[in-house]
């Protein structure tokens, strides 16, 4: 197996995660468990990973499809189990794609291809949680 990341304890509930590609991120817990709120929680990072993975897919597909995208935002909502381990049980992705004369059909296709075929994080998480998605297109030409 290849080493992809290292997580190192800093202090209290603060950790620095370093990736094999040379990037670092601070993760921390809330004050009630000894954290200082210096960074996102590890479970929030899971959702950021999902959002980032699918955003790359959608943008690549839309750009290859000749769409004039000016902005792409994925709003991620989630529900967690009440008992430990508090895994995500439901995750919803709302895509907001802004641009000029965008094809709603092409946006829908890009979102579906990401969800059903390309997004590795999505495919992994759907084994544990119900994943749903929807989208909206904002046309700046109007």
UniProtKB/TrEMBL annotation:
InterPro entries: KH_dom-like_a/b, OsmC/Ohr_fam, OsmC/Ohrsf
Pfam families: OsmC
Tree of life domain: Bacteria
UniProt name for this protein: Peroxiredoxin
Organism of provenance: Thiomicrospira aerophila AL3
């Amino acid at each position: 197996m290849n080493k992809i990341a290292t997580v190192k304890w800093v202090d209290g509930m603060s950790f620095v995660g370093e990736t094999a590609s040379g990037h670092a991120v601070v993760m921390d817990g809330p004050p009630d468990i000894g954290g200082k709120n210096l960074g996102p929680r590890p479970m929030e990072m899971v959702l950021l990973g999902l959002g980032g993975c699918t955003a790359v897919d959608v943008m690549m597909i839309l750009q290859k499809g000749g769409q004039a995208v000016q902005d792409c935002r994925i709003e991620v909502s989630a529900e967690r189990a009440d008992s430990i381990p508090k895994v995500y049980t439901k995750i919803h992705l709302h895509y907001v794609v802004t641009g000029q004369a965008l094809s709603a059909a092409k946006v829908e296709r890009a979102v579906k291809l990401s969800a059903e075929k390309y997004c590795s994080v999505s495919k992994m998480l759907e084994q544990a949680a119900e994943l749903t998605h929807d989208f909206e297109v904002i046309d700046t030409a109007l």
